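Internal tracking record. Fields below are filled automatically when a chain is submitted to the structure queue. Please do not edit lines marked as system-generated. If the sequence contains nonstandard residues, flag them in the REMARKS field before resubmitting.
Queue: standard
Priority: normal
Entity type: single polypeptide chain
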Amino acid sequence: MLAMATNIQVTFDCADPHAMARFWAAALGYLKEDHGPFVKGLLESGAIQEEMTVAVDGSRQFADVSACRDPGGNGPRIFFQRVPEPKSSKNRVHLDLHVGPDHYEAEADRIEQLGAQRLWYSDDRGGKCWTMADVEGNEFCVD
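SYSTEM-GENERATED OUTPUT FOLLOWS
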């Protein structure tokens, strides 16, 4: 039997799935998914009620979930789901954005302009790295 790699999706619990999808789409060069046509069909068929949706980006979208994806189909889909509780401690899993030693400062600057904040700098493991927080405080690294 031929072994195949498992396709993965990375899921974030969050307060505002659409803001998170916009931020991470811009940070990663991804596209925020437009679920409008699918949601419209579900509304028209009665499968979901309008209170389960929200007007976002010019159409009705799911209120509690959003996603972004790699336009080239290489990277994992990033999914965001609303949860009632706020982030309360350090994440147990985080994303590392590998841009290289000649670009990590400029990339940290660019992502900061999207709403992220720098938390701390480190070079203790050989590489230069900024640990940053996204728009909801989730840590990630730019190295």
